[in-house]
Write a structure and sequence with these properties.
The chain is an alpha/beta fold. The protein has 18 helices and 27 strands.
């Protein structure tokens, strides 16, 4: 019998494969294909740091199975190893056989040591002496100099030496590459026959390695990179000061258990065996790569070269038409709810709202949740300015936002120094809800304005992530947001809400109730349909509810970017369910729920939560209805466009495989391009 659930980690690996496939698409501009190779590299880093390390821990604890999918952790790890090795080999094949040769045709070239001219050699030799040598620490191994503690994802060079007076173990040296050094260097134009010629740092070190080991013979140099377990383990019940505890724990992320070993393809077997023994890594976790061990370091290249014809066309996000020419954002919101669709529409109205609130004498209170903001955030500066001007500013900063902990600690300190009230959310529950509330005195009464979003308050992300934001002063919605902020600061139970739904548990209950309503409508012969657009779907209770709805005749269309454990189109289980993943220029991030609702008005909700256990059980999340008919129609139209995409869409099959949709050039539909045309006059 078919197991009706896919494995979470294998599903995520499948998403990474779809990202890699963009780098193979000749219709994608060349420098963007390189960028997607880098994104794939970054995604795989996190996959090993978090997902594979978690599976290994469960395997070592003898956990019998990985949930309903039926695979044991060891079985899943074996599948992952086979697929990941295949994908990494494919990644470097694309780099070496497609992307790099084509970049050379456009005057962008990475030179191997054998290609350096005499003038280039002299310049690079001086560069090494001036910029590299002073900060290198080469370590030749012996009993007094053990293998250095290599940092997570840091580049090192392992050097194979020949010294007849020492045994093989002590004929090895390690040269850690300081992170302060750029991983590739541009050669001066006057020394080049192409406009952009670069050399990898590893090549510069390799070419000058004899200066570091002048008394022995150097047989070879090979890149080395270790990926380590990066999950932070903090017992929240035993912690008195979370910020201080995290500051103490963050360094351990750099030196966690070794999970993956990447080495140059040419590295001798005896050295690989030595490294495997040193890092206690099985052969399944060794990746021999034909190129830079960290392609993510090339992610900045497209921005360094002036080649607009091999990049995506630039665009200017539009200003939502609801704002018109009004300079007063409060007045604009008072005239009706405002929907923002990023990156096609600008995030500037949200920034302007906070800027106006910070200087408005009638504004008394500003409350906001911050999950990820980015370094040097304008929003943080405006909140600090508002606090310094005497307004009551309360900010819920999520210190446990993975890989943003250090930045969020600094953000919290900056806001506290400005006089803001900083709260770290609820014990044991990450605050993932995206909420902003402003309380303003108008005509002797207090009035609330709120922004609710599907994405973070991170201006950089709003240019590359697709998200929705709602600006409203609806009394019931703003009252609900007030209750949620009260819960976050008082550590109280889930409040009674009029319009919003909240996790933990509330969003799951609400979603299943609506699914049951669609089932009842289908059984009565009424219109019944569900559309959900999310980043991940792995909640078994939600999956089971959708299976039940499918069997009752409810049409279900799911747009799931990444993890999806539901199997569509399975006979007798999910014949009425279709699942597609849209992977394109922008990272699909919006969470939207649509319910046909029989002969009544359809229901449309925006949410900060994915349909995954962590979001539904272990996080503070919000889900808000769209009450304005015009805005509701816009979102429904957007969903229909996503369901018509043929250029970036992959359809999940009943065997668990994703198939890319193929259409003729004249019938091709790219939803992201269509939305750019819809919202931006400059595209």
């Amino acid at each position: 019998m078919l197991n009706p659930y896919l494995h979470v980690e294998l599903s995520l690996l499948s998403f990474n494969e779809r990202v890699l496939n963009i780098a193979m698409d000749n219709k994608v501009p060349l420098l963007e294909r390189l960028r997607f190779l880098c994104i794939f590299s970054s995604n795989m880093d996190e996959f090993f740091e978090i997902r594979v390390s978690g599976l290994k821990a469960r395997a070592q604890s003898q956990v019998a199975s990985e949930g309903a999918d039926g695979l044991t952790p060891n079985e899943a790890l074996q599948h992952i190893s086979e697929k990941a090795h295949q994908l990494v080999d494919q990644q470097y094949q694309i780099l070496n056989e497609q992307v790099m040769p084509e970049l050379k045709e456009h005057g962008i070239e990475f030179l191997h040591r054998s290609q350096w001219s005499d003038d280039q050699k002299r310049w690079l030799k001086n560069y090494f002496k001036r910029e590299v040598l002073p900060i290198l620490t080469p370590i030749r191994l012996d009993p007094a100099h053990p293998f250095p503690l290599t940092i997570n994802k840091g580049l090192s060079i392992v050097v194979d030496l020949h010294d007849p007076e020492r045994d093989d173990t002590h004929n090895i040296a390690v040269v850690p590459a300081p992170r302060a050094l750029p991983r590739f260097v541009r050669l001066p134009e006057e020394l080049c026959d192409k406009e952009y010629q670069y050399v990898y740092l590893s090549s510069i070190i390799h070419a000058n390695i004899k200066k570091l080991f002048s008394n022995v013979e150097v047989l070879g140099c090979y890149q080395l990179r270790i990926t380590r377990n990066s999950d932070l383990y903090v017992d929240l019940e035993e912690v008195e000061d979370l910020a201080r505890t995290l500051e103490g724990e963050l360094p351990s992320r750099l030196y966690g258990e070794a999970i993956r070993l990447e080495v140059s393809k040419q590295c001798p077997k005896r050295i690989i065996n030595f490294l495997k023994q040193r890092f206690q890594i099985h052969s399944d976790y060794v990746y021999k790569v034909d190129g830079p061990v960290n392609l993510n370091r090339l992610t900045g290249l497209p921005d360094l070269v002036n080649r607009p014809h091999i990049k995506y066309p630039s665009f200017t996000p539009s200003i939502a038409s609801y704002l018109g020419q009004q300079n007063d954002t409060f007045e604009a919101i008072s005239n009706g709810d405002i929907l923002l669709h990023h990156p096609f529409q600008s995030f500037a109205p949200v920034v302007d709202l906070i800027r106006q609130a910070a200087s408005d004498p009638d504004v008394l209170v500003i409350k906001q949740t911050l999950y990820r903001t980015g370094a040097d955030s304008v929003l943080v500066e405006l909140l600090a300015e508002a606090a310094r001007s005497g307004k009551e500013v309360t900010v819920i900063v999520e210190l446990m936002a993975r890989f943003d902990e250090q930045n969020n600690i600094a953000t919290a300190q900056k806001l506290q120094n400005a006089g803001a009230h900083v709260v770290y959310g609820m014990v044991g529950k990450k605050t993932h809800a995206k909420m902003l509330m402003i309380v303003r005195r108008e005509r002797q009464k207090l009035k609330r304005y709120v922004h609710l979003g599907t994405g973070n308050y991170h201006q950089g992300n709003t240019r590359i992530y697709t998200d929705y934001g709602l600006l409203t002063c609806n009394k019931e919605i703003t009252s609900d947001v007030h209750e949620l902020f009260m819960q976050l600061t008082t550590q109280g139970p889930n409040p009674e809400l009029k319009q919003l739904h909240q996790s933990p548990f509330g969003i799951a209950h609400f979603f299943i109730e609506q699914v049951e309503n669609e089932i009842a409508n289908a059984e009565q012969g009424l219109p019944a349909k569900i559309i959900a657009k999310v980043n991940g779907l792995s909640s078994q209770s939600i999956v089971d509810a959708l299976y039940k709805a499918s069997q009752a005749g409810v049409k279900i269309e799911l747009i799931v970017r990444g993890i999806c454990t539901l199997i569509p189109g399975a006979q007798g289980i999910s014949e009425n369910i279709e699942v597609r993943s849209v992977v394109g220029r922008f990272l699909e991030h919006a969470r939207v729920f649509y319910f046909e609702n029989g002969n009544e008005e359809p229901l449309v909700y925006l949410s900060s939560a994915d349909l995954m256990p962590r979001n539904l059980r272990n996080r503070i999340e919000q889900c808000t209805p769209i009450l304005d008919d015009q805005l509701k129609a816009e979102i429904i139209d957007d969903l229909q466009q996503y369901l018509q995409d043929t250029e970036n869409a992959w359809c999940l099959q009943s065997n668990g495989e994703y198939i890319k949709l193929i259409s003729s050039e004249e019938n091709s539909v790219n939803v992201q391009a269509q939305l750019l045309l819809k919202h931006s006059e400059d595209y």
